[in-house]
């Protein structure tokens, strides 16, 4: 891609880039390829936040691990959920919640729609996620 001067971080009119779109659709191999060619793992989208938040919201565990390997900021703020932990908690993705906590996610970080991860999990009735957060 770079040999043809393709801008891997170019954004659409709604501030999404190829990495975010690929992550949103669960295309792990394309996400990895874009990262290998220098896509910004922490680029923000006004709607979705960053790619880590997208992967956490959609429950893509392997994608979350890949993004963390490429240096995704586990506590980056932005988007609807505010941060990756709140995105995972809102959607009841227990394994992803644990992965994020293991990588240093701030359980008390303030978010956008919900004040924190515990409130997000509680709002949607995700009991196991609430238990994980309380034990952390």
List the helices and strands and how they pair.
Elements: H1 18-24, H2 28-36, H3 51-58, H4 61-69, H5 84-90, H6 94-102, H7 117-123, H8 127-135
Written description of the protein model:
- One of its GO terms (cellular component) is nucleus.
- GO terms for molecular function: transcription cis-regulatory region binding.
- It comes from Aspergillus eucalypticola (strain CBS 122712 / IBT 29274).
- This protein has 8 helices and no strands.
- By secondary structure, it is mainly α.
- It has one domain: Serine Threonine Protein Phosphatase 5, Tetratricopeptide repeat (Alpha Horseshoe), CATH 1.25.40.
- It is elongated, with a radius of gyration of 15 Å.
- The chain starts with 17 loop residues before the first helix and ends with a helix.
- The mean pLDDT is 90.
- CATH fold descriptor: Serine Threonine Protein Phosphatase 5, Tetratricopeptide repeat
Specify the biggest β-sheet.
Answer: none
Integer count of domains: 1
Q: Which structural category fits the helices and strands?
A: mainly alpha
Query: How many E strands?
Result: 0
Percent strand equals: under 5%
- Residue share in helix: 40-55%
**Rounded Rg:** 15 Å
Residue windows where pLDDT falls under 50 for at least 5 positions: none
InterPro entries: Ankyrin-SOCS_Box, Ankyrin_rpt, Ankyrin_rpt-contain_sf
Pfam family, one: Ank_2
GO biological process, one term: positive regulation of transcription by RNA polymerase II
ANK repeats: 14-46, 52-79, 83-112
């Amino acid at each position: 891609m770079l040999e043809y001067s393709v801008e891997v971080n170019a954004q659409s009119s709604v501030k999404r880039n190829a990495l975010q779109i690929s992550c949103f659709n669960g295309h792990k191999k394309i996400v990895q390829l874009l990262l290998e060619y220098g896509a910004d793992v922490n680029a923000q989208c006004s709607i979705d936040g960053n790619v880590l938040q997208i992967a956490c919201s959609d429950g893509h565990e392997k994608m979350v691990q890949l993004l963390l390997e490429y240096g995704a900021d586990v506590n980056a703020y932005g988007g609807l959920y505010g941060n990756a932990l709140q995105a995972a908690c809102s959607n009841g993705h227990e394994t992803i919640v644990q992965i994020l906590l293991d990588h240093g996610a701030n359980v008390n970080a303030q978010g956008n729609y919900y004040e924190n991860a515990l409130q997000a999990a509680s709002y949607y009735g995700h009991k196991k996620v609430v238990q994980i957060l309380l034990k952390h």
